[in-house]
Amino acid sequence: HSLALLPCLLYLQLEMTDGSSKMLTVGSEGFRCLRESHFIWKNDGMGLVFLEGAMPELQTLHLYFRTHETIANYSGVDGNGIENLSRLKKLCVDVDCSGSTREEVEAAEDSIRKAADRHRTKLTLEIRRWCEACMIEEEAHDGNAEFPSRSVNRRANPVRVAFRCHFVDPRKHVSMNLFQFFNYIYVLLIGIMACI
Known about the structure:
7-stranded mixed sheet, two-stranded parallel sheet, globular
C-alpha cells in the first residue's frame, strides 16, 4: 500500500515468491504516475486483478506466471481486468510451462489474447513461453504415482516480495532509482531544517 501512494513512481517491478495464494487487487487509489510495471509470480501462480481506474498512466505491463499454479489457485488468467488499464499500449506475458499440460498453456494464452482484444485500444501483445520442455502429459495430473504432489504448505513458505522502483522529480522529469529518491528526500529535509 505504501508504494501505491508514492506520487512520482514511474516504474515498478514486483516479484512474488514462495508463498501466498492471496489475490493482489490494484484499484484506482494508487500508482497514479506509473508508466511501466512488471508483476512476477515464481511459485504459486498469478493472482492479480486490475479494477476500473487502476494505474491510469500505465503504458507497458509485463506479466510472468506459472500456468498450472495460476489455473489451480485462481481458475486461470481470465477476468484479471487488463481492459481497465486505460492507457495500456503494450502487454508482454511470459508463460512458464513447467508442470503444465499443453492444454493448460494454450487455454492461458487464449485467455490473455481475449483480454487484450477486449481492451479499448489496439494493444501490442507479446506472449512468450518459458520451460516448454518441462510441460507434462495429461495423465500426470490424474494421480500418476511417478509425479510428485504439487501441494504447498503455505505456513512453511512465507510470502517474499522483492521490488525495484524508479521515481521522477516532477520539476525536472528526471528518472531516479530508490536510493537516489531517498537521498533526494534526505537533502531536501536537511535544507528545510537549515532554514528553520
